[in-house]
Amino acid sequence: xxxxxxxxxxxxxxxxxxxxxxxxxxxxxxxxxxxxxxxxxxxxxxxxxxxxxxxxxxxxxxxxxxxxxxxxxxxxxxxxxxxxxxxxxxxxxxxxxxxxxxxxxxxxxxxxxxxxxxxxxxxxxxxxxxxxxxxxxxxxxxxxxxxxxxxxxxxxxxxxxxxxxxxxxxxxxxxxxxxxxxxxxxxxxxxxxxxxxxxxxxxxxxxxxxx
Length: 211
Ligand code: ATP
Prior knowledge:
- By secondary structure, the protein is an alpha/beta fold.
- It has helices spanning 17-29, 53-64, 75-79, 85-96, 108-111, 123-126, 144-152, 158-161, 179-187, 198-206; strands at residues 4-10, 34-39, 70-72, 101-107, 128-132, 167-170.
- The protein has a single domain (4-206), classed as HUPs (Rossmann fold, 3-Layer(aba) Sandwich).
- The chain is 38% helix and 15% strand.
- The longest helix is centred in the first third of the chain and has 13 residues, at 17-29.
- The relative contact order is 0.20.
- The structure holds adenosine-5'-triphosphate (ATP).
């Protein structure tokens, strides 16, 4: 049977239970053999993260310590240049070969801006795109991203059937947790305990992050 691997990218600044829970649910719902979280180095579409790349990676590793189902992948940090999804997918495709099913997962907020991404029209040829609806974000109905949806939308069975080329939109319950709010809480001297894994909160305190 065709092997299938999912990738969930983000700044993870910091990683929180919303990210982790979604990654796990996606792995289960898509019946993936493997699910990897990929922190990006310098995200091209947003302000640079407020802590350095190695600290974001350390928090991700701590968060995944007790979870055999999810893995981390530091390739975008090692590249030490802007993280273009196109480059990452080319690298992954070269590594895994043409037959393995690759799924690039993202929230609707990220997907809505897809047409501003580097070589965005070529992404779907390299992997399936899996988009999770987020509260407040609607599926684009007009424009180039809407055209992409119309051409490539499929249901989850495509993930095993093909190696790339389909777009899956999922309505997932998302935990109402935001990294922006967590950073604001810490800055306001409030505790984000129970929104992030305890090991991550301990790391944030030990290193005085987000103050
Ligand atoms: P910020 O609040 O700083 O924008 P973020 O968590 O939205 O942080 P990222 O770390 O880049 O930003 O998010 C990575 C991915 O996780 C994105 O695709 C985003 O849609 C998704 N995501 C963010 N918050 C949640 C959540 N609570 N539940 C599920 N997915 C989330």
